[in-house]
From TrEMBL, chain A:
InterPro entries linked: AAA+_ATPase, ABC_carbohydrate_import_ATPase, ABC_transporter-like_ATP-bd, ABC_transporter-like_CS, P-loop_NTPase
Name this polypeptide is given: Ribose transport system ATP-binding protein/rhamnose transport system ATP-binding protein
Transmembrane segments: none
Organism the protein comes from: Fulvimarina manganoxydans
One GO location term (cellular component): plasma membrane
From TrEMBL, chain B:
Official protein name in the record: Autoinducer 2 import system permease protein LsrD
Any one Gene Ontology molecular-function term assigned to this protein's record: transmembrane transporter activity
Membrane topology per record: Multi-pass membrane protein
InterPro entries with a match to the protein in the record: ABC_transp_permease (IPR001851)
Amino acid sequence: MTPVIELAGVSKAFGPVKVLTGVDFALYPGEVHALMGENGAGKSTMIRIASGDHRADEGEIRLDGEARRFRGPREAQEEGIAVVHQELLLFPSLSVAENIFLGHQPKTRRGFVDWGRMRREARELLDRLDCPQLDVDQRVAKLSVADRQRVEIARALSRKARVLIMDEPTAALAEADVQRLLDVIRRLREDGVAIVYVSHRMNEIFAIADRITVLRDGTSTGTYPVSEVTESSLVSMMVGRDIHQLFPKIEVERGKTRLEVRNLSRTGLVEDISFDLHAGEILGIAGLVGSGRTELAQTIFGVTPATSGEIKVDGSPRKIASVRDAIANGIAYVPEDRGLHGLVRPQPLRENVTMAILDRMTKFSVIDTGREQRMAKEAIDRFAIRARDARQRVGQLSGGNQQKVVLAKWLATDPKVLILDEPTRGIDIGAKTEIHRLMGELARKGIAILMISSELPEVLGMSDRILVMKEGRLSAVIDRKDATPDKVGAAMMRTRPEPAAAGAVR
Amino acid sequence: MAAVTRILIRHETILGILFVIALFVMAAQSDRFFTTANLLNQARLMTEVGLIAIPMTFVIITGGIDLSVGSIMGLCAILVGVFWQNVGLPLSAAIGLSLVAGTLAGFANGIIITRFRVPPLIATLATLALYRGLAEGISQARSVRGYPDWFAQLGQGEIAGIPTQLWLFALVAIAGIFILRATTFGRTTYAIGNNEAAAEFSGLPVERTKLLIYTASGFISALAAIVFVSRVSTTRSDMGNGIELEVITAVVLGGTSIFGGRGMVIGTLIGLCLMQILQNGLSLSGVRGDGTTVVIGAILIVAVLISNILGRFAND
């Protein structure tokens, strides 16, 4: 049998960054092919190349055995390749039927939209997806996430899709909806549709996939039938390298308790979190996207103040109802999204560096710009920020240097507890190592560090202990000496968290 | 600040050049234009718009807008007359109460915008109608006249050869320049306009700052109403009708970005002067009022276009 679509030796680079190197991938009709890999391993880029969004630098794409070049996503769609994106790309104020047939509505002979046929065909497609209760005239805005996803799949089928690429389709679904989705996928498979299934959830992969391809750092570690792999072999294929060598971990004596979190909850975001954080300790938080890691950090930092529970800093209970409270109590937060929450990019470096301590920079509420300038200069020297001068706009700096500015800004508050949310996301290796080195230095000075990261090697390499989160709760706490990729990975993806684990935190 | 300042200075340079050209052209058109008496009189006429333009610069830098300033002005003008003539309070008390009312009107705008998260455009569009309606309801279409001489000093008199209200305007403008440039309040204003979420994540008092700015806008609008009443010695409920558009034009012409984050009080002052001499000069040389409006519209578009093009060069 010839594969319906095949990537052969595909490479892709964005500027100097190589995202994919010589990847082979073959998809046969009537199979569910799982695509796995860490964040940044190259999954999205691969999907985009297959669906005509990006063009490969090297290698070729074969459709039914013949080499093809897509000039754009439209051509790929015409060949029957459809993508169901993670963030569903529907038009909320249009009806279900309109969304399904957007761009290729059935027309009457006089060129008007044939509403009757459109509604009828939409109905047939939805029945095929086993959702007879879904009204084709309903506005999409009123549908649940699961129903929207069905509309998106129906839209793909309406274009006679032979290849259906699903990018983390279950990320936002409840368990019952996941089962229904898997049923739909099985039915499509029987109809001969070839399905690429991207997911982090092990149980789904084993429930639905026929074959599995694992990507790591832009290369394929191979394609295996599902019968030949186990959960732990998949995790180590995804993570791969010997982690402890990569990270310059400094051994620091664990000091007194800096931060105590007890039964912390924020309705709908995090539930019943308890842990201690000590001076000189780096506590890693692992978990899938959406597991409540960032939400936990922002609850401690007062962005979304806790609805119940207690936070103690240096042994005494503190009320943290706002960011100002958090800063006043020595808590600093380097956010996940630098551009959105970390920096005011159009403003100069020096104004960003002092932004969190502006109150302390004044005489009668007039800003001491001389002191500000000196502080910014010191920050540039201390963190080796590559900037023209302290007046350069932060938006003009590279990602790594911007991140150093955010770090400088928060270290200026003289924090006792430093929360780092994805501290090295989207920055180059050099800057990454510098930030890791800096973290060690800060720990040695007695700062307690809470580090959130999606990169398992980073969590394993930098942390003294690891909190694993799942669905807004703590699912496990693992000591450095016991931490293996398999163990952490398993705790991240476990279907049911073990209730005993949360108790063993202290 | 280097890059940003450079653009602004350039925008102001352009504006300054336009201003000088306009001065020469107008002077050549009419020999009544370039006289001390005429220029001082023009300064007197632009004071009300100018006063309101100072807090409006802050409002627009935060990325907001305040459309209700003209209505607040009308409401406060009416209140002065009603408190003084109908209620029988001393005029100074009437003025004080009217200032309080304007401040409260601005405060209400601020509360609607910060607490209830209504977009400023919608919130102040609603209060534009609301405050104007109140003014008309209170006035019952009657005007109040016969203000005492000492009150007329503010709008018609002079101190040291300069119109009285111009001193007041200078005071407000200098305060505006100082607060925006030198204080944490000004810094917070820019940060809100450039990235409100990041300002919030930095622990800056975002809500309080916005609330204060809209409140100040109400207060200054009331102050402008007092100056206006004093200048024309009468109160009517349609006072300040449409003044918000003149104010916003001056601010935007002065280089403040309507998207927020960028702008300076100095720019607003130049924009204001440019508008005023165009109006005056054109009408002196016999151009009708609607012709003047066309010219001001054209100047606005040209100035903003040039600044956009320069801005694109400065952004890498």
